[in-house]
Amino acid sequence: MRALFAATSFRRIFTRLIRPAHQKVLPLTNFRAMASEAKDITAPPADKQIIAHEGKRYVTVKEGLAHILVPEPSEEDKENLRPDQAVRQVFYNPIQQYNRDLTVLAIKAYGKEAVQQKQASHSKLEKIIEKKRKRQAQKQDQQPNKAQKGADGEKATTEPATDATTEQETDVPVDKGDEQATNGEAKKGKQPPFTVLDALSASGLRALRYAHEIPFLTSVTANDLLATAVESIKLNVKHNRLEDKVNVCHDDALAHMYTLIAKELRAKDPKGKPTMSEKYDVVDLDPYGTAAPFLDAAVQSVRDDGGLLCVTCTDSGVWASNGYPEKCYSLYGGVPVKAWFSHEVGIRLVLYSIQTAAAKYGLTIEPLLSLSIDFYIRVFVRVKKSPAAVKFQGGKNMMVYNCDSGCGAWSTQLLMRNKPSPNKKGSGVFYKHTFAQGPSVDKGCEHCGSTMHMAGPMYGGRIHSPDFIKRVLGELEEAPTDVYGTTLRIRGMLQTALEEILLTPEEQEAEKAKEEAIKAGKKPDPAFKEAELAAIDPYPFYFHPATISGILKCSCPPEAPLKGALRGLGYRVTRSHCKPGSIKTDAPWSIIWHVFREWIRQKAPVKEDNIKPGTPGYRLLRLGEKKKQEEQAEGAEAPKEQQSEQAEGETMPEVVFDEQLGRDDKTIKLVRYQANPRENWGPLNRAVGKVPSHHRKD
Question: What class of enzyme is it (predicted)?
């Protein structure tokens, strides 16, 4: 009975692991019925079918338009192995479908624009080459014929200069871009190449989905170091009938990328010019753990004219905690924070490591979308070759001073300054890259007096591109829900990421002028481009009202009244995609503390005896000054320090907790934050590579 119960429980767990979240658990009787109807690997793929191949049996799992083969557990394995060991000979986590759905949509949004740019560039270059050839032919026709008279006095016919003409016509100077335009893939009537590298492919599911769901993709390389993974990818490619699009590679990811880089460096034409580039349009890094060891090779393997780099880091215990600052520094070049906003700090640390890896090669990055999702980070950045833009990067990195042991307030310190100055003509500006003044704070917190600690360096620019997010949302509108099972969550998170972008007044004016120029058919002012390169995020991070309420020992204000109070004072308020219940605002910390003090005074008085002297809450509520006032005799003059505190209190604006003003538009309901999809979910364990007993060779 125990063995029967164990086998039945195992079947239920196994079925839950391989099924999509929106489907019901397959009954045991149906599972047995399917097992008796095993099909060959050449059969058309379908969900939950049983495939028999070379004496082994697999269960088909469908995600998106792709199907992967998962080893069917044997009777012996059902009793002796854990469920995750039985189904994950190659690493596969169904919870990561959100990541894969989002990535497919992001590559579609990026790729459509990239393909259009390629087509326009190819067409333009073909016209230039054709004009060069016509001019060369005209020169040949205008040259006078050199007639020679023969011995009989007759005029000899001029020999045709076919060879010379052909040599001159074909010897047109053609640069690297021209070669790309005239290669076989770029000829008229053919689609320009669009290639993707799935560097750490595991089961090959990402590569299969890219090949199935991205119509303009010409080839995807699925690479993995594990031999069992490569065999699994080959089987999956064969079963999905994608041999013409998916190239399976058994290699170390670093070796594969550096081999491509070395080939690029050695490739020269007879004139010593670089030949056509074979770099990937998209490089996708989705490792188990950190992607830091692969960044140097990845930024060089992706196209340097705006290629897309997709990076996942699942080691949140390193970049989002204070337990391993030395490990975080060795991997990402910066130190994390001990704070509630640590996940956004993690995003900025990862972006900083990508930026520094690219800068040494004259490459600059533009973050398009950077998300903290569940237990990992996913970032999409555009990579371009621009030594001039690299000069701005020092002024887009920062240190953070954090009051982690006190009130939780923070202050930022840029490493350099990108200072605009008028040019000599007076018609525009140019940027000077100078040293930054510092430090921006004292060693003690200005609000509660606690010790400030440093974190960073980290990326200090914008972590999202509004235009890119809007394009991804546009792709989402056309995405069928039966293929992309996580559309509700994608829409909610992208909308939240779009809303958390708080532009400065100067940036708002520049964006408005740029849009007006585009509508009028004019080219935007070149100064806009440099301003975008120098732009930083003046309002990074977010705070948690419940955490602040805990420091002040008061009841937490509801979200709507708190937002209404800040908006009533003229500040903008939104939320962060990183954490539910977060508040992101352009209000300074002095205003935030003033609002909370007014909340306590107007709405939620606290028991002052419960707040110990010397604690951050005691100092923030200024209880020491209040007791001094009570102890002073009536009519006695207050000390100068107390008079200055009173004067400061009088100058602070009046706070009104307007609940109506604080309510957000709820006409469209969004799933902004993910609830736990199932019990014991998460990153799962690393794939063990253990072969089930019925897969072992005797």
Answer: transferase
